[in-house]
Amino acid sequence: MTRQSIAEELENAADRIADISRADLQIILRRAALMLRNVAGVLLKPAAEDALKSLLVVVVGMAACLNALMLPPKEQRKRAE
To answer: Where would a tag sit more exposed on the chain, N or C end, judged by fewer CB atoms within 10 A?
Structure first.
């Protein structure tokens, strides 16, 4: 997979976050993490680094929400307490 195809997958997942399965989201996020890990020697400007960190916060938040939505109702109540 190329960086472009992974970026397109992430954008597509963000567009349909309510419909994507947890397993598919995990695969997409792991591919993105692997691609980022394999990029060597990339120097980012502070603004780009801040943007990536903000994106990471959003993606992690979406994953947490999706995870909570997929819990059985009994588990959702336990976590809410």
So the answer is: C
